[in-house]
Amino acid sequence: MAGTSDIKRGMCFRKNNDIFVIVEFQHVKPGKGAAFVRTKYKSLTTGRVLEENIPAGHKIDDVRVERRKFQYLYNDDSGYHFMNQETFDQTFLAGTMIDNTALLKEGTEVDILFDAQEEIALTLDMPQYITLKVTYTEPGVKGDTATNTLKPATVETGAEVRVPLFINEGDLIKLDTQTSAYVERVKK
User: Fold this and answer.
1) Residues with Cβ within 8 Å of residue 139, at least 6 apart in sequence
2) 3, burial (CB in 10 Å: exposed 0-12, middle 13-18, buried 19+)
3) CATH fold of 130-186, please?
4) Which member of 26, 43, 126, 161 has the lowest number of beta carbons within 10 Å of its beta carbon?
5) Cβ of 83: how many Cβ atoms within 10 Å?
6) pLDDT under 70 in the chain at which residues?
7) CB neighbour class for 53 (10 Å; exposed up to 12, middle 13-18, buried from 19)
8) Contact 169, 134 (CB under 8 A)
9) Per residue in 5-15, pLDDT tens?
10) Domain 65-125, CATH 3.50.50.60 — does that match?
């Protein structure tokens, strides 16, 4: 059991037969009344995000998690398949457990969080940035660089993203995996 003073971002806890991860928290001490912790947490099974004020001193049932390195192999009807980098064991996850599957490229190293007691995969953390090759985009109009205009582009995983006008087919671009936003062009 952990107290409200132990709450931090990324902490996992069990509540109502579900496992949640803390997304945001803020310790609040109002001028009048008791202190509390304003939390926003996400269910690792359903993906729902909930908000709750937890009174100071309240105990929560924390879950010990282990972060393990895996490599993405492929996906099929049963899910997304990954290989453990140390033991070479394979596991698969349902697409609902993974955020932004459209940016997942074969060979990408990811972290999978496991419940240490029950050996159950909880969630997948992709790297913050990923480099992908542009497979299709319309050519930009020469001289149209005065505005910060974006155009659609398809990358090698099949995902469609928005890129600046100077990006052409065959360019390598760096994308933020949380938002699918263009970050920069990568030199070859």
Assistant:
1) 168
2) middle
3) OB fold (Dihydrolipoamide Acetyltransferase, E2P) (2.40.50)
4) 26
5) 14
6) 141-147
7) exposed
8) yes
9) 888 888 889 89
10) no
